[in-house]
Amino acid sequence: MAGTSFSVELFTWFVQIIVDIFFREVSTRGSFNLPQTGATIVVIAPHANQFLDAAVTMYIVNKVTGRRTAFIEAAASFRRRVVGAFSRWSGAISVERPQDLLVVKPGTITYKNYPDDELTIVGTGTQFTKYCEVKGLLGLPKSIVNAKIAQVISDTELKIQKPISKPKGVELLLAGTEYKVAPRIDNSQLFNNVFDRLHAGDLIAIAAEGGSHDRTQFLPFKPGFAIMALGAAAKYPDTEVNIVPCGLNYFHPNKFRSRAVLEFGEPIVISSKDGKEYEADAKSKVDSIMSEITDAMKAVTQQSPDYETLQVIQAARRLYAYPKKHIPLPLVVEMNRNLLIGYTQYHDDPQIQHLKKSVMDYNKRLQYLGLTDHQLEKYTNNVFKTSYLLLRRTVKLLFLVALSLPGTILFSPVFIACHVISRKKQREALAKSSVKIKGTDVLGSWKVLIALVFAPSLYTFYSLVGTYMSIKYSLLPNWWILQFKVVIYSCCYSLLVWTTYAAFRIGETGMDILKSLRPLVLSLSPKSHQFVSSRQNQ
Predict the structure, then answer these.
(1) Are residues 199 and 176 in the same domain?
(2) Taking the CA of residue 109 as centre, how many other CA atoms within 13 Å lie in the half-sphere pointing to its CB?
(3) CB of 157 closer than 8 Å to CB of 112
(4) Nearest 5°: CA angle at 169, between 164 and 172?
(5) Which of 50, 169, 204, 268 is placed for a possible disulfide with 164 were both Cys, Cβ 3.0 to 4.6 Å?
(6) Which residues contact 361 (CB under 8 A, 6 or more apart)?
């Protein structure tokens, strides 16, 4: 395994800090399914939080088993300055993806004889024999669709392996379009490296879908993890590989201080027998493992046909649970999943349709009041109790605001930079992807990356200013140890870190209080009583 023992411990500690700061709560379910030793591949999905998915998985795996995780990561990430540095530090394994190497080439392309022939592409001003190769990649603008090349016939004609299914891709080709080309990628060395590491008993993690996204359903799983497990069992018959499905269930993944539940399913054991079957018929065996892991992943995640349905299910779960005590996050995930399974099977039933419409109407009324469903649980119709609680919380909020104000002001440039730059990265990611809906999957990761760069720089600047002012105006006691500039600088830096951390913890409590005020204010309004009563009846 790459890295010294000290660097491993240092990176583990670093990841723990990131996870503890970004997430308010990270829970686990089924953690006993994680093997303590031996060849292990942890397959994660959905890949909804880009680089943070890797961080939270590493954190939990280390917390549960004490093992270090080596992630399979795109080589494009390694080529980024900051991300690449962290990737190498973590001991991640680089894999080149053809879509990351797509380059615009001269000419335009179109179908030769669509719809009679959906595979033959012809070009104008193209040089297919120079730039294209069999098993290379042909891409359309804005990453609308990519297709593998099956045959290069001439400079102006080639065939793709499969028909293009996306309507936008077909429209572009019918009209004539620019195109991109990527060479064939040979990852045999990567796979052999993974086989050897699994034989050595390492734990490797991989995102089953490849790239990150913000959809409510899985993207098609890539077969890489199945090939790795089967290939290792074939190359080393004495090695059993455990494939552990890991569902990443987030509550607002792009938001600071959000919550997450990692659920681990029962391991799929790949033995020497599976390795022999893989050598005899690779495609059939890989398809079999892919089908098995897909079913296993559905059992540890929440799969919704669309965002609207997910909102309805979440509201229905809260209504169903009301007014019981606080439900642990892992149980919330299980309830959501069970409701989604039931809805998927019976969504055409008139009673279910009526229930869906009622819940949607209920959500709309909540939006009109500017409330979320869980805030109504704090509602009370006792006017005196409500007035007292509102006054007490308002005073407490003002006190907390005063305490957190210095740290908030000092750290505000980082907040602004995180917001502005992460939104810019969101727009860029959305423009490059054909699978993202809003591009929210990149927001959380970029907020963390920006803070990791800007915060130390800001602390350094403030500390230098503080050191200069302290010496010039003799602001500190005349102690001998304070005669050293490096000591003054270190004290300033430490004070700044603790000030902003205190503001962060105090501000979190303040935000909780602030969110609770609106239901209390509405509790004093007679117009809201009828709606809340109907909520309790529902």
Answers:
(1) no
(2) 28
(3) yes
(4) 130
(5) 169
(6) none
Instruction: For residues 190 and 258, give the distance between their C-alpha atoms in angstroms, rounded to a whole number.
Output: 35
Q: Do the domain assignments include residue 375? A: no
Together in a domain, 51 and 141: no
pLDDT at res. 520: 76
Q: How far is CA 243 from its chain centroid?
A: 20
Apex 504 CA angle, 503 and 506, nearest 5:
65
* Structure token digits, residue 355: 């229930």
User: Which residue pairs, CB below 8 angstroms and at least 24 apart, start in 294-299?
Assistant: 294/218, 294/221, 296/245, 296/265, 296/266, 296/268, 297/43, 297/45, 297/208, 297/218, 297/221, 297/245, 297/247, 297/265, 299/245, 299/247, 299/265
Helices (H), 347-433: 350-369, 383-432
Q: How many CB atoms lie within 10 A of CB 391?
A: 11
**Rounded CA gap, 507 and 212, in Å?**
31
Domain end among 182, 215, 246: 182
> How many residues make up the chain in this entry?
538
Going from the C-alpha of 156 to that of each of 112, 169, 171, 316, the distances in angstroms are 10, 19, 20, 57
| C-alpha radius of gyration, the chain, whole number | 27
Distance CA 240, CA 536 (A): 53
Contact at 8 Å (CB) between 205 and 69? yes
> End-to-end distance of the chain based on CA atoms, in angstroms?
56
Per-residue pLDDT tens digits for 196-238: 999 999 999 999 998 888 888 898 999 999 999 999 999 999 9
Query: Which tokens belong to 273?
Result: 């027998």
Nearest to 147 by CA among 125, 127, 120: 120
* Secondary structure (3-state) at 532: helix
List the domain range (segments joined by +) for residue 346.
Answer: 307-369
Q: What average pLDDT does the structure give for the chain?
A: 86
Which amino acid appears at position 432 of this protein?
K
Same domain, 64 and 192: yes
The region that residue 48 occupies, defined by phi over 0 for left and psi between -120 and 50 for alpha, beta otherwise, is alpha
Long-range Cβ contacts of 138-142 (<8 Å, 24+ apart): 138/109, 138/179, 138/180, 138/181, 139/99, 139/102, 139/179, 139/180, 139/181, 139/182, 140/169, 140/172, 140/173, 140/177, 140/179, 140/180, 141/172, 141/177, 141/178, 141/179, 141/180, 142/431, 142/432, 142/434
> Does the reported pTM lie above 0.90?
no
Structural domains in the chain (count): 4
The answer to whether the beta carbons of residues 239 and 198 sit under 8 Å apart is yes
For the chain, give the longest Cα–Cα distance: 90
